[in-house]
Amino acid sequence: MTHILRSVTLPFIMILLVVGFWMSGEFREVAAGVAIFLFGMLMLEQGFELFSGGFLERILERATKSTPRAIAFGFTTTSVMQSSSLVSVITISFLSAGLLSLVAGVGIIFGANIGTTTGAWLVAGFGLKVDIAAFAMPMLALSIVLVFQKSKYVRGGGYVLAGMGFLFLGIHHMKVGFESFDIDLSSFAMTGVAGLLVYTLIGAAATVIMQSSHATMVLVITALAANQVTYENALALSIGANVGTTVTAIIGAATANYQGRRLALAHVIFNVGTGAVALIFIVPLAATVDWISGLIGIAPDDYTLKLAVFHTLFNLLGVVLMLPLFHRLIVFLERTIPSTEPGISQPRYLNDAVGAFPETIEAALTAEVGHLHDNAIELIAHGLSLHRSSLYESHDLETTVRAETEPFDFDIDHAYEQRVKVLYAAILEFVNNRNAHELPVETVQRMYALRESAEHMVGAVKEVKHMRENTVAFTATEQGDISALYDGLRTEIAEILVALHELKETPVADRSVLWLEDERTRIKSDKTQTGGVVEGLMREEALTATASTSFMNDANYAYRAMKELVDAARLYYGEREGPLAEVERLLEPDEDLEFSNTHSRGRSGES
Amino acid sequence: MSIDETADKLDKYRKRVKKGKAHKIKPKHVKEIRQKLHRKRGRLDEEINNAETAKERDRLAKKRATVDHLIDRADWLRSQL
To answer: pTM for this one?
Structure first.
C-alpha cells in the first residue's frame, strides 16, 4: 500500500512542480527556496552526524538521567541543530541499542517538540528582519574551506556552517518569491472551522512531503510576511506542521525494534493530542498569544512573531498537559507494543534503527551477542541434563552434577536453529553491513571481537550437540565407570558455565578475563588426564574398546566445547583494546603453556 | 608461566610500543588489573569457606593458587614499568 502511494505521489508532485514552474516565475523562486532550505537541513544533519562517535552520545547518556533533563536535552539539541529529525534518529538508535530508557526517549521527544519552535523565532525575528542572503554567501564560502579539511570535527563544522548558509539562502528565496507573487494567494483564505481543518490538513501534507516541519514553518512564516496567507490560516498551518511530522516518525520507526515503535507512538500521541487541543482551544489560545505579545513588546500587526509565539505556546501546552500523564503514557506504550515474545529468539537489539553511531552499534552488538550467549548456555546446560540455577547455587559442583540425571525433553537441533543460529545469522549480517571505513578503529576491533565471540559460542553448542546422545544415555541411569566418566565431562563443562556466570554477574569495572585462566589452562591437562583414566579402565577391562572409543570421541567434543566457551567469554568479557587489555595479555600464559601448579582434578572413575 | 616468559612477552610488547602498535601501559593499569584479581581471590576465599566437601575445597584452592600466580606476575610487571 505504502509502495503504491509512494509511486503515485512522486509523479504527481513532479508534474505539479513542472506545471508550477511553467506558469509562474515566483513559484520557481519559492520552490527553489524550499529546495535550498531542505538541502541546508541535510547538510546540517550531515555535519552534526560527524560530531557523533563520542561527543553527542556522551552528552546524551549524561543528559537523560531524569525526565526534566531529558526534556531539556531534547529542547537544547533541537534548538542548536534545528532538526528534530536528527534528534529523533539518535534517540531511536540509542533506545534500540538499549542505551536509553523509554522514559528518557519520550522526554527527549517532548523537549524536541519545544525545540523546533525556536526555528520559527529565528526566521520571524531575524530571518525576515535583516538581509539574510548577505550572511549566507560568506558562510558558504567559508564552509567549503572547512569541508575539505582532514579533521572530522572541522569537516563537521564546515557542513554545519554550509547548512546554515543554505538555510539562510533558502529563506531569502522564499521571501523574495512570496513578495513578488502576482497571484494573491490570500484570496484562497478560508475562515471558521472549515478554514482551520483545511489549512491544518495542508500544513500536515506539506510536512509529509518535505519531511520537515521546520521547512513548513519557514514557508508559512515567509508567506505570512508577504501577506500571501492570513494569520488565522497560518495558525492552522502550524498546527498541521506539528501533526505532519508524526508521519516521519512512523516511517522512521518501521524498521526499529519495539522500543523504537513505542517512541514513534509517543510522538504521534503527543503531536496529534497537542494539535487537537490547539484546534479546540484556538480562540482562547489566539487571545493568549495577543496578551503575551503585548507583554513582550511584539507589535499587534507583527503576525510572523505572533505565529512564533503561538507555535511555542501550543507546544508548551502539550508538554504541560502530557507531563502529569507521563508515567501512564509509558505504561500504555509498553502495553500497546509489547516486547519481543518470550520463547522466540528473534534479535532483540540489532535493527536498522541502531544507525551508524559507534556507541549504539557497539552497545546493540554487545547486547545481542550477550543474548546469544544466554541462549547457547541454556542449550548447553539442558543438553547435558543440567539446571543452570542448581549449578550457580552449588557449593559442591561434582555432587550437584551427579544428582542431575533427568534429561530435558527437547530437540537440541531444533532449539539450536531457533534460539542460536537465528541470532548468529543476524549478528553476522549486522557486522557485515556496517561500513568499517567510517567507524573508529576501536569500534571495528570490538565489533570483530564480538562476532568472533558469537562464533565460538555457536561452536560450543555444536560440540555439545554431538555428545548429547551418549551423555544423556549414560547419565540418566547409573552404569558404573562409564557414567562416572561422562559425569566428569559434565562437571568440567559445568565449572566453565559457573565461571562464565560469575563474569556476567560482576560489574564491568570489577571483573577480568584473567579469572578464567584456571579454566583455560586446565582444559588441555584435563584432556590428557582423561585419556589416561580411560586407558587405565581398558587395561582393567572395566571398559570395552568400543565404549572407550565412543567416550573419547565425546570427550573430544566436550573439551572443544570447553575451549570454545572460554574463548567466547575471553572475547566478550575482555577489556576493550587499550592499556588494560595489554596488561591482561602480558599476564596470561601463552596458549600451550600452563601454570606450574596446574592441578589434576580428581573425579570418580579416576584410577 | 615463569617470569622469563613474562619478560619475553614484555620485551615484545616494548618493541610494539616503540613502533606505535601498542597502547602504553602505566603502573595504574597494572594496579587496576591486580585489584580485579585480588577481588577474585577474596571471592574464592569465601567459596572455599562455604565448600561442602574437601574435594570442592581442593578444587577452589587450586583456582586460588592460579590467581595468586597472576597477582605475583602483576607485581613483577609493575616493578618493571
So the answer is: 0.67
